[in-house]
Every structure is written in structure tokens, then in C-alpha cells.
Amino acid sequence: MLTKFETKSNRVKGLSFHGKRPWILASLHSGVIQLWDYRMGTLIDKFDEHDGPVRGVHFHNSQPLFVSGGDDYKIKVWNYKLHRCLFTLLGHLDYIRTVQFHHENPWIVSASDDQTIRIWNWQSRTCISVLTGHNHYVMCALFHPKEDLVVSASLDQTVRVWDIGALKKKAGSPVDDILRLGQMNTDFFGGVDAVVKYVLEGHDRGVNWASFHPTLPLIVSGADDRQVKIWRMNDAKAWEVDTLRGHLNNVSCVLFHARQEIIVSNSEDKSIRVWDSTKRTVIQSFRREHDRFWILASHPEVNLLAAGHDSGMMVFKLERERPAFSVSGDSLYYVKDRFLRFYDYSTQKDTQVIPFRRPGSSSLNQGPKTLSYSPTENAVLICSDIDGGSYELFIVPKDSFSRGDTVQEAKRGAGGSAFFVARNRFAVLEKSSNQVLVKNLKNEIVKKIAIPVVTDAIFYAGTGNLLCRGEDRLIIFDLQQRIVLGDLQTSLVRYVVWSTDMESIALLSKHSVIIADKKLVHRCTLHETIRVKSGAWDENGVFIYTTLTHIKYCLPNGDSGIIRTLDVPLYITKIFGNTIFCLDRDGKIRPIVIDSTEYIFKLALLRKRHDHVMSMIRNSALCGQAMIAYLQNKGFPEVALHFVKDERTRFNLALESGSIQTAVDSAKEIDEKDHWYRLGVEALRQGNAGIVEYAYQRTKNFERLSFLYLLTGKLDKLSKMMKIAETQNDIMGQFHNALYLGNIQERVKVLENAGHVPLAYITASVHGLHDVAGRLAAELGDSIPSLPEGRSASLLVPPSPILSGGDWPLLRVTKGIFEGGLGNAHEEYEEAADADWGEDLDIVDVENLQNGDISMVLEDGEVHEENDEGGWEYEDLELPPDIDTPNAATNARASIFVAPTTGMPVSQIWVQKSSLAAEHAAAGNFDTAMRLLSRQLGIRNFTPLKTIFTDLHMGSHTYLRAFTSAPVISIAVERGWSESASPNVRGPPALFFNFSQLEEKLKAGYKATTAGKLTEALRHFLGILQTIPLIVVETRREVDEVKELIIIAKEYVLGLQMELKRRELKDIDPVRQQELAAYFTHCNLQVPHLRLALMTAMSVCYKAGNLSTAANFSRRLLETNPTNENQARTARQVLQAAERNMKDTSQLNYDFRNPFVVCGATYVPIYRGQKNVSCPYCGSHFVPPQEGQLCNVCDLAVVGSDASGLLCSPSQVR
């Protein structure tokens, strides 16, 4: 038995296969009906409306319907597409055992414990016939697959066959059924619509099941007498043919196999038995340990069976259906119907070669499993599972190709696997001794070779070599040298496919394909959700394989895709160009023509065959989101651009590939502010000032436009921008433009008009405009602002531009490999160095316009593209004639040495790739590290971090002295470096500090606190707080640990600071001393340290006469169950003394009943509900007046400042 699918559920009482889809219905004893996809192994749907067990269920053969019958006396018809019950048929008076649709008519037959069988019309939703005659529960009723018959089985020990021919003749419209209801009721106990044809008596106990043979006039039945009986019938009578004995308990279900001459039965003895229907003997028996079987179902089209039992159900096949075949050059040898056949691919001619006898066997799965062919000797080896594994050797005579009828006596032998390893030698695996026997064509042993690993199968691996399959690995073994040539860890490999040049191998498992080279060096693995069936290599080195439902491809780099879907499973034998030759399960050769454009295109990209790629882009109909996504993921956005029609997608791809002109065209079509802004950013990155200007004009982004004109030195346009700002009453814009232009008079005018007369006076005075300054002084009168004495003023005047530039090469955009060679592709936008888009997109004169009456959006026609200009005008350089620039490709061994270009420093790569402050500090870029810390944690005081910064930088570099006259060479040290790593890929810097060091510091801090060395403990905890900002960890879990450590360190720093402050106040301020001791007990400390703090607070308050407060501390101390007996005794004594006189002599700012946090600067309680501010780094709380001050706890961050949060792991960035 080959189990294909199993479920675990409540007891399964009914099963039904769908005719076309890989679905099966299972009705459960719990009342649920499950719909499973047995190929994918998934539960599709559940139907739960029956009250009690559902014993019968059946799919309609063409409509999206199924019917169910249960112990609630109801028959329900469901539509599985609508996921609901359409209607319920009522009429039975007891449990319903089985239900079934008729294969042609709109009928349902049902059997019930009310001793009747009913036939219903599901279209008119009425009962059209009641079959009475059984005098006990009717256990089953089924239609004949072709004739007008019904068979039923009952616990009255009989099987009845009913003729429903008269019912079929009367069947008309639904109206007729309704008219006939009255008549049906009158002849309820003896209607002529359905009459008993035969009553089959022979079982000694109640009969549980009876079913027809699909084609022959046979019936099989199973009963509580543990027997299976076969009955034959003709037009006149029916009689018992034979009895099959062997089951040890009630037979639950029995049926004929649709394709083979076998009967399958199952029983409450926990077994399924397979019987030979001609020899009447048991072929095979399958048994479960604890589960009784209840129901069987067979697939109407495919060779599948299903069985339901106490804890679920299983879908299985009795025999393998894969045909044995072997490809040799342009020919195929395969086995079909006990004949060896020959197929010529070139002529597509199929010939019968020789018949071969199968020995009589008493079990299933004895057909040919593998076939091996030796072309020089014309010999064929056929392996099967007969007698635990055996082979047959045939020498095919040349003349038999014409006749194919000569029966040969084969040479036989035992062995699990056998195939030719040389011209006239074949290898056989002897599992018992773990040896390979090499035999000649006379079937004589030539040599025995022990295999170094325990092997359960061997495969061909070239002349003289074997592939040996172990439990979890595969090895290549050389039979001559007796050495292992290759080894690969893999799951159970079922089939092996070599490429024609024997350089590559595909290993097919049940749900995976592994590609390796001839030495078993792994290349890639593909995982499939449904079973992999076969495969072959095409001439391009692409592996084509089939699953149950698809033909797929696998490229050498592991990329895969679907070529086409399959209706039935096929086994690929050979691939010629676009034609795949397959064998189906019936042994028929089926050539399939496929479209290989997609995988050939991807292969050309992979192998950098750019001429092929361009040719395919021009001539093929490649398209689709999947192809565009693939090209994007593989780093070919410029290629994807040629497949895309959607302007938004084109715009994104153009930006990604740096194709700025295509992006401009798409932005014009889309014409949205966001797209113009993104275009401006990309153009600025490339240094294309003209397009930046155009993008800013389209979005009316005047501020950016003014700044661009300042950078490019276009003062005339700046002055126009100032006039525009004036017309739009944009005072700030006007002032900025005046500032950029260095126009003092305009600045004074703007300030004066805005009402800032003192500022206007100062500006005029400083810049020497004395007449204007005098006029403004008269206006100001007595409130003239005084200028600082003894200061030399620096004038806010920008430097005059030396050269008014257009584009500048910020980013060198190299021309793509596909650009220029593609038809209909836009030419790359290139502009001469002195070109100026702004001149063409001139802003209109605004002298006489009213406010706001100006439009900056220009017509597309105003953009003049100078496509015939010559790039950057390099040819205009007047070079002296004696300079000759060498051509790099003319002669590789030319005498001129071209120095290699300088690579990017590792420290720069670290800075570009990382957002972690520690890695910037390690790279020596302290400025960006400080900016990152300021932004992430609000840190402003970097003095405590100075040594940590320098340690990080020094620790991430090592220094070599090559020789005395050369400078010291600095070498970057990378984190996690290994010899196998690519030299072109730079890892992150090795860091001097790590998390484990902080854990050691934490332990040292705890130890010092316990010992009472509070100053030393404070130094340890403060060190932890000041090191954490420059720590890097790998995982999210470690990030959480770091954040937890900040909280721990913060609590201890605050507590220790308060305790040290309390000790300073000893004998000076007893009230404040008591408050600080009390606050210390509310810090989140370890239990031993909390006990010490409580002990101190209790002692201080008791001595000061605050007995009530001391009692509170003693209670809290006793609640911690102190292990030190002295502490416990003292606490009890204080509690007893306080209870006699529960009074406090002095009032403290301390209310233990009201939750509070302690201010980190003033050490006063901030009770719940009161306003407070916190440190963005350590989280310490402060009273509002402390906002903007440096945090007293961590000594790093500014209280109340904005921060994005701690960033200490690459996983947070990902």
C-alpha cells in the first residue's frame, strides 16, 4: 500500500472522492463533514449542520453539489462553492446509513434504519419512490454505474437488487413528480416504480455492504459473519459464486477495484484486505494497531482508494504507476503491459521489442521498477520488488525489433538495485552484506566490493561509478579505486537525473529537487509542496521537472518557475528544443510543446548574454508583474523598464536605474507633486541641475529653487525669485532672496515694511548705508538700539559667483549594458556643460503683475531637449597635437602603465552601511557618531564618552609597519571575518566593547553595593550607563536585554546618589536624612540590597523618633523573608516598640501609600498624577523646572529633549 495522505480526526463513517479535483469528503461521527485537498494535504472547508453522526456522503459527478445523510433523519444537499446547505430532504424515520447521487438522473438514493430505501428527485426536492421489503436496518443502497438497478444490504441477512427501470420511464418534469405524490402514497407498500429483482440469501448474519462491479454482472457483499461473498446475476436469476474468508470481525465495506481484477474489503478487525477476484485468494493485507475500519471509497477516474477508521482516514494506492524506462541517445526503452517497447525520438516510431513473463506472485507492486540499457550489447536489465527485490537480464536480438513476439528466458537474480556500469558489466546491490556485486552478461559474479556506508539503493553515476544512497546522505563511489569521490547530506533521494555531459546531477526527493555537480558539490535546493515526479536536462543546462500538477524549470542559480500546468501526472523522458517527451501512467508517449522564452531569457541574464537578452526583448512577448519583479530583484531595473506600460511603475524603475529622462517623461504623464519632488531629489543626486530646476518649478517649491540658483550662481534668476516673493507677499522668501543676492537695500526695505525698524536700522548702520540709517534713527527717536562696543562686524554678503554653472558630475551614471541597443528606447538624457534649462523655462516678467497673479507651471512644449548635442563637449578641448591618449583595449601588454583606481576606504563603507553610532565611532567618524547619539538618545554631553570613542576607533584597526622608510599601514578589523568570506564584501567593524563586559560590570557593581562600597558601585553602574550607547548586539532578544540593563543601572545610580547625599547630611539635617533614606527604599533594587536599604531607613527613622514610619519599613523588611537572623530580629523588635506608640515626631515629605517616582536632580517625590519630564536616554524622572538641564543620573542626555530611541542592533534597522 502506498499511502498518499492521512488525516487525524473523529471516527470517519462516510467518504467520497471528487471526480475532477483532488478533493475528498469525509463525514465524521461527531457530525462534521470535512472537505480535504489530498494532494496538498490541506483542509479546504468544514460543514457542520447535522445533529449527530453523519454516516453517508457523496459528490455529484458534474454539479458543485454533495449530499449527506445523518442520524438526525435528515438528508442535506450542499453547494460547496457557496459553502452552505441548499435544502434538507425529510421523510426517513430513523438513522440514514448511505446516500448517493445517480450518475445521470437528478436522483439521490438513501438507505435507512427505518427498513426502507428512498429515491429522491433533488431538483424537485421530493421523494419519488420508497423501496420496502427489508425487515431490518438497511445498511447500504447504491445505484448501478450503468444499468437501472439498485443494490441494497440489510441486517436481515439479505442483499436485494431492485429494478428501477419503470421509475426511469416515468421520470419527467418536476411537476409530474408533485402530481405523482398522491399516487406514490397510495401504493406506499407495493409500488410498481421499483421492484425487487433478486433477493440474495447466503450470509449467516446481517449484511453491512453490497456493491456492483463497474462493468461485469457481479455483486460483492460483506457481512457480520466475517465473510465476503461474490454473486453473479443474469436477466433471470442471481447466485452465489464464491466466499472469501479471512477477516476476523464484521466486514464493514467491500468493493471491486475499477482497474484491476481485485476486491478490496475492510473490517472491524482493524485490517484492509485485497483479494484476487479470479483466484479468490488474499493478495495483501494492511493492518492498523488500534483503529477499526468502517468505510471504503474508490476514485471514479484515478487509481486511488480511501479508507475511514476510528481516528481519521487515509488515501492510498495499491500499486506504483510510474513506468520503468531508460533513455539511450535518441531512443527510449520502456515497459508497457508486460512488453518491452522501443521508441525512436527522431522518427517518433513506437515498436514492441520482446514480451516478458511475470512470475505468478501472491502480492501487489511486483511490476518493473527500474530499467537499464546497454546500447553496445543490446542488453536490458529490469528490476522489480519480487521476492524482496530481484532483476531480470534480457539480451535483445536485433531481428526482434521487427516482430516483437519472441519470448525470451531471462537470467534472474536477487538484488534491490541493478544497472549497467560498463559495456558488459552490471552492478547489483546485495543489502544483506552491504556489498555491490559486479556481474557479466552471463550473470556470473566478476567481483564483490564492500561499500563504505550502509546503503539501501544504488544509482548510475557514469562508467565505473556508483551513487550510493545511505540513510541521510549520498556518496559517489569509484568501483575501480574503491574510494569515495563525493559526499552530500540529503533527505531520501528517489530518482537521479544526470545531464548529457555528466557535469550536473539532479536528485529528486518526494518534495524537493537538489542540483549538484558531478562531485556532489551542492548548488541549490528547491522545495515543493506537492510531490515531485520526474525530470530531465535540456540542452541549455536548465533542469525541467514535473510535479503532480505542473511542468517547472530550475536554473543553475536556483531560480525556478512554472512552464505549464498538467491534467494528469507525466514522467519526462527527454527534451528536444521546445518539445518535452513524456510517458503517462498508461505507458503512452506524449510529446508536449512548451514555451521556453521565460527561462531562456532568465538564463541569458544569468550568463550575461546581453545580445540574447536584447534580441528577446525586441522579439518576445515577455511581460507580467512576475517578470518585472524578477528583473528588479536581480538588479536589472533598466531591463524591466522595457516591459512596463504603467507610468508609475516606469517612473519608479527609471529612478532606480538612474534613467533620468524616462523619469521626466513619466513624471509629466503622472504630474503629481510627490513624483516631481522625488525626480528633483534623484536629479540633484546625479548633478543634473536643469532637471532639478524644472522639477522645483513644476511643484512651485520656491525655497528650494532659490537655494539652487544660489548654488549655481544664477543671480538674475534669484532677483526674479525675489520679485515673485514680493508679488506673493512672502516676506520670509523675499528676505531670504535678498540675503542670497547680497542686496542690502532690499533687506533693509523688507525689515522696515515688516515692522522690524530697529533691525532695519542696525542692518543699514553696519553696512554703511548712513542716509537710510539717519532716516530710520529719526523714526525711532529715543529707542535707537545701541551697537556693541569694541566688536568688528562681519558683513552678511555672499561671495560673487566666479562661474555660473549648469550641471555638475556629483554622481557618475554609467550607461547600462542594455542602453542604446534597444529599439524604441528613449535616448539617455545628456546635456552640454554650458546648457541651461532655466533659460528656456524663463520666468515671465513680473514687474507689473498684481499680487498672486503669476503661474509657474509651464507648458510641456517649453522644454527644449538638445538630443543632438555632444555630451560634455569634450571634443572642443584644444589639446596639443603631440598628446596621444592610449586606447585601453588595443594592446594588453602596452608599455603604458595605468594605475588602478582608488577603492573606497573601509571606514567610509562602514559609515555608509550603518546607522549605529558605535560603528561610526569605530570608523573614526566621531562627528556623525555624535549626531546619531544626539538624534537617537538626546545626548549633549560627550565628555564622558571621549575615551570610549577613541577606544572603539583604535580597537577596530590594527597597524603594520612594512619597512622603516614607509608609513604605518592601517588595516581595518572586521567583525565575524572568515576565510570563506568574499574579499569584495566588507563586514562591520570589530568593536572593543561587548555586552558580556557589561554583565561583568553589573556583577562587580552588585558586589560593591553588598560590601557597602557605594562610591565604587556608583562608578560601575555609571560606567554601564555611559557605555551602552556604544554597544552593538545581534539579535532582538539581546536588544531587549540591553534596554533592561539601562533600567537596572539607572535605578542603582539614582539610589546610590541619594544614599551618598544622605551620608553627607549626617548630623546636619535629620529630616532630610530620613527622607533620602526612605526614597532609597523605593528604587528597584535586588532583594539583598533592598533589605539593606530598608534596614538603614528603619534605623534612621527609629533613632529620630519617627516610630510609625520606622514600623512601615520593618514590615516591608519582614515581608522579604530576610535570611539574616539579626535583620529579622531587629525588625521585629522595632515593630513591637513602635506598636506601643505609633507616632512620628517630625513631618516628612514622604507618603508610602501614594505611588511615586523620585526626581533625579532634587531628590523629591513626584506622586502619581503630578507633571514630570524624563531623560530620553535613561528614563529618569524630573520635576518640570529641570527641563533643558543635563540629566544628573546618566550625565549624558538633556532632560525633556526629543529622541528616536536606542539603536544598538542591525536587526532593528532591518
Automatic annotation (TrEMBL):
CDD domains per the UniProt record, alphabetical: Coatomer_WDAD_alpha, WD40
Entry keyword Transport: yes
InterPro entries associated with the record: Beta-prop_COPA/B_2nd, Coatomer_alpha_WD-assoc_reg, Coatomer_asu, Coatomer_asu_C, Coatomer_complex_subunit, Haem_d1_sf, TPR_COPA_B, WD40/YVTN_repeat-like_dom_sf
Principal subcellular localization: cytoplasm
Chain ranges of the COPA/B second beta-propeller domain: 340-584
Domain of life, source organism: Eukaryota
A GO CC term assigned to this protein in UniProt: COPI vesicle coat
Pfam families recorded: B-prop_COPA_B_2nd, COPI_C, TPR_COPA_B, WD40
Domain Coatomer alpha subunit C-terminal, first and last residues per copy: 824-1214
Entry membrane topology: Peripheral membrane protein
Name of protein: Coatomer subunit alpha
